Amino acid sequence: MKNIRNFCVIAHIDHGKSTLSDRLLDFTQSVNERERMDQQLDDMDLERERGITIKSHAIQMHYPHEDGEIYTFNMIDTPGHVDFSYEVSRSIAACEGALLLVDATQGIQAQTISNLFLALEHELEIIPVLNKVDMETAMIEEMADQMIELTGCSREDIILASGKTGIGVPEIMKAVVERIPAPSGDPEAPLQALIFDSVFNPFRGVIAYVRVMNGELNKHDNLRFIATESVYEANEVGAMEITPKPQDKISCGNVGYIVTGLKTSSEIKVGDTVTLEDRPGKRLAGFEEVKPMVFAGIFPLDNDDFEPLRDSLEKLQLNDASLVFEPETSAALGYGFRCGFLGMLHLEIVQERLFREFNMDVITTVPNVTYRVTDTKGNVSEIRNPAELPDVNHRARVDEPIISAQIITTTDYIGAIMTLCIDKRGTLTKQTYLSPERVELHFVLPLAEIVFDFYDRLKSISRGYASFDYQPKGYEETDLVRMDIKLNGENVDALSALVHRSKAEQIGRQMCKKLRELLPRQQFVIAIQAAIGAKVIARETLSAMRKDVTAKCYGGDISRKRKLLEKQKAGKRKMRQFGKVEVPQKAFLDVLKLD
Ligand code: GDP
Ligand code: MG
Fold this sequence. Notes:
Elements: E1 4-11, H1 17-27, H2 45-50, E2 58-64, E3 70-77, H3 85-93, E4 97-103, H4 110-121, E5 125-131, H5 140-151, E6 159-160, H6 169-179, E7 192-201, E8 205-214, E9 217-218, E10 222-225, E11 230-233, E12 236-240, E13 244-247, E14 249-250, E15 255-259, E16 273-276, E17 294-300, H7 306-318, E18 324-330, E19 334-341, H8 344-358, E20 362-364, E21 368-369, E22 371-374, E23 380-383, E24 397-410, H9 414-423, E25 427-433, E26 438-446, H10 447-451, H11 454-461, E27 466-478, E28 480-487, E29 490-491, E30 497-500, H12 501-518, E31 526-532, E32 535-542, H13 558-573, E33 575-578, E34 581-584, H14 585-590
Parallel strand pairs: 1-3, 1-4, 4-5, 5-6
Antiparallel strand pairs: 2-3, 7-8, 7-16, 8-15, 9-14, 10-11, 10-16, 12-13, 12-15, 17-19, 17-20, 17-21, 18-19, 22-23, 22-24, 24-26, 24-27, 25-26, 28-29, 28-30, 28-31, 31-32, 33-34
Helix pairs in contact: 1-6, 7-8
The chain binds guanosine-5'-diphosphate and magnesium ion.
């Protein structure tokens, strides 16, 4: 145990975590050149393109230190986005130390701070690393001062590094041995292993990543997963180097993987404790059932694709236990699914994976958060769908989820960000200067307001110089209404939205205006209306089309005329019909980009 070091790398998105992790791997020559890809730690295409790490991984390295001993390093990669913060907290709980990586051209950002606080809560030893020092725009001394201020470290503690050139990598390896404590734990005690991640492998089933806190985990042990109350034999256990290396056991204090043979990821819960069936240990602290926060309907573009869509969602769920779905019907869109996501990024990822991996073209309805509705008899239920909101006579109160948010920005943008957050029904609770130019703002905000165009607006008003992070903070009473969109009097249920009463008119007006731009002109006038119940709160009119598209062919050229008509027909397949009005798929996707 004394030669084991378990650590994670915490950083804001794009501060160079994946690049530096690759460098550390290169350094210990764990990397077989043939297996090497550009960014080994991000193994999904989508991750590579977006430059984010969706699933965390644990990589084991063997490092010969100058004291003549060989050390086993378990480096745990953590996801870098707010939607996945529970996974980050479990990865941190599996470690004794953390590399706190800060981009020397960017400085401390919202996620640097929230992840640092998580690490400090778990009493991790922090190694401050200032990254990208090779860049001309690096402001080393200024950023070092920020880190000292934030962590209370001294200037000598800070390692200057570059994942690009490899500067600082030997110093980091040395610091991991010398500054991060070896794990403690009792090898003789009953087994307690923390699951901090799981992945689905089509050939092997679910693979769980664990950190053994006490006892040890042997191949062929009968394992009990405490939260799911299931018992399985460990078919294979081992250490994850770049490829899996099967072993006889995972020793006390160490990190490894278990091939469970389970067929769905929902049978393994991140944060759960693995113990032995015949000598059970207690559940480790900190387990939480991760609940989806944002819901939206997902409908196939073509009604015949309902079953294939179900198939695709089931396959996605195999390696994404936080995705939930159930069948839903819409008068406008037919059969589809109501899906639950951890947040907006998670929703986007699912939508994109459906398209790329399964070739599924889908329509996503207006997303909403979950609301708690108390009826007149005092019964509380959760609603996930605009159609489920009981009318005013049948509800006593509605509560909505609240978050506590941190935004870090430069002083120039404080005013604009305050205006945005207040418009989003937020309250400023704290304002801290990190340096004369940089400020950390704390807000309490309704989660529902983040779901509507928050990120885009924050980004545009701050020209990208603002970082954002949040944590859930319970529920508070709200004044909720359902806003419907009507086309020539016909309700388009897929465009209904749950909104705060004070926002209904503004959002209604924006949606109508946007729809007027998005809908193609048709043979007749179209009235676009937003309404609460019978009361119309906004209205736009789209005038009729003037000319027949084939008119410009002068009658003579038959083949050109046919081509045009065919093109029109193909376009129609991407349309949805409401009464007589046709709505293109793009309208459903773009109507929420309100500006
Ligand atoms: P992550 O989101 O924290 O994993 O960040 P990545 O490792 O994906 O890096 C984000 C971007 O910064 C990529 O374009 C990298 O090529 C670049 N980058 C990472 N580390 C360095 C560095 O040390 N120096 C320079 N110049 N660029 C870097
Ligand atoms: Mg990364």
